[in-house]
From TrEMBL:
Gene Ontology biological-process entries: glycolytic process
Organism, as annotated: Timema cristinae
Cross-referenced PANTHER family: GLYCERALDEHYDE 3-PHOSPHATE DEHYDROGENASE, GLYCERALDEHYDE-3-PHOSPHATE DEHYDROGENASE-RELATED
Protein name: Glyceraldehyde 3-phosphate dehydrogenase NAD(P) binding domain-containing protein
Family indicated by similarity: Belongs to the glyceraldehyde-3-phosphate dehydrogenase family.
Amino acid sequence: MNGLFSGKKIYLSHEKNPKKIPWGDHGADYVVEATGVFRSVDKCQGHITGGARKVVITAPSEDAPMFVCGVNEKDYKSSMNIVSNASCTTNALAPIAKVIHDNFQIVEGLMTTIHSVTATQKTVDSPSGKLWRDGRGAFQNIIPASTGAAKAVAMVIPSLYGKLTGMAFRVPVANVSVVDLTVR
């Protein structure tokens, strides 16, 4: 299936398996993996098999090298074919933490993030398998949530390992992300 964008032909696919997407046949060099499903090097390798040269994961990954602009992008090597750009919260937190840590040395810190509704939340109050609060309707409640941003910051700034902790709130709006960082 094809579409047009600004007069240019754009290839569209509905294939779920990255290995079966013919990226190379359509001249795609770079794939932005934003599904949230394929977050490891192994799972993203399918895009490379399909013909892409590079993959950027838009979420933290346990095994892909992680980069945040303004923090550690200089460590990127062209030989790295699959990388992670962390999360939106990590991209908000890491540059601030780097400036403070480079100039004053962070001993410990607490980050609080306020984040808009995500696709994993319930639209109305209903049962949840894990935590009761996860069953709350996304557009009717401010919902406490976990965040991996403090851990992800330590992946891009190793000297902050174990020094940051954090909490998150999901709020009933379509688009916002705020990070508050308190440090000692």
